[in-house]
Amino acid sequence: GLGSAKEVLILVSGQAIARRMQSIFVREARKRGRALELPWIGTPSRLFRNLIGLKNRIADPTTTLLTATSVLKEMPPNTIAPIVGPRRPAEDDFVAWSKIARHVCDAMKTVSGGGLSLDRSTWPECARVMLTDSAMKRFDLLNEIQSRVQTIFDKEGLHLFELQQLELLNNKQELELGSIQRVVVVGASDLAG
C-alpha cells in the first residue's frame, strides 16, 4: 500500500477523475469489508489554492471575472482592440463584456498553468521569437489587464491566483506539505475500465 491516508496526496487532472477515484476506493473497501480513510485527492490547481491560501487571500474566480470585466470596460477602445476587435461592445452589454473577460481569465490560467508569466520579457528567447506582431500585442494587453486587476486587488488585500501560482512555481524553496510522504500523479487513462 501507499501508507496512511494522511501521508498520501493524489493529484488528478480534473474533479470528475477525483470523484471516480474516490468511488473506486470506496467500492474496493466495501468489497473487502474494510473501513476507509480517503487520502487527499485533487487537481494541481486545487493543491496550489490550498498551499497559497495558507499565506495569502486569493480572489475567487467570480471576483476576478468581474474585476477583469470592469478593467476592460475602462480601457480605451484602441487599447483593447487586439483582443476585442474593431467593434467594441456596447457599454451596457454585460454579457459581451463578461465573455471577453472570461477569455482573458482563461488565457491567464493557461499561461500561468504552463509555468509562464504573461510578461513576454520573462520568456525564453525561443518562445518570444515565434510570436507574430499581433500575438505580441495581445500578450502585452493581457499582461496589462492582469496587472490592473492585481492593482485593484492590492487595495483589498487580495491576490490573483495565477500570479501566486507562478510565484510558488518559480520559488526554489521546498514546499511544506505537512505529513505528506508520498505524492501520486494519476492520469485519466490510468482509471479506464
In short:
With 193 residues, the protein is mainly alpha-helical. It contains eight helices and five strands; from the N terminus they run E-H-E-H-E-H-H-H-H-H-E-H-E.
For the largest beta sheet, what order do the strands appear in spatially? 2-1-5
Report the total helices: 8
**Which overall shape is indicated by the principal axes computed on the Cα atoms?**
elongated
Q: Main beta sheet, described?
A: 3 strands, parallel
Task: Please tally the β strands and state the result.
Answer: 5
Helix content: 55-70%
| Residue fraction in strands | 5-15%
Give the distance, in angstroms, between the N- and C-terminal Cα atoms.
21 Å
Order of helices and strands: EHEHEHHHHHEHE
Low-confidence stretches: none
| Structural Rg | 21 Å
Structural class: mainly alpha
- Nearest-integer average pLDDT: 84
Please name the defining characteristics of this protein.
about 55% helix, single chain, about 190 residues, about 10% strand, mainly alpha, 3-stranded parallel sheet, two-stranded parallel ribbon, 8 helices
Describe the structure.
This protein has 193 residues and is mainly alpha-helical. Helix content is 56%, strand content 8%. The strands form two sheets. It has a three-stranded parallel β-sheet, with helices on both faces. The longest helix has 24 residues. The chain is elongated and about 65 Å long. The two termini are 21 Å apart. The model has no long low-confidence stretch (mean pLDDT 84).
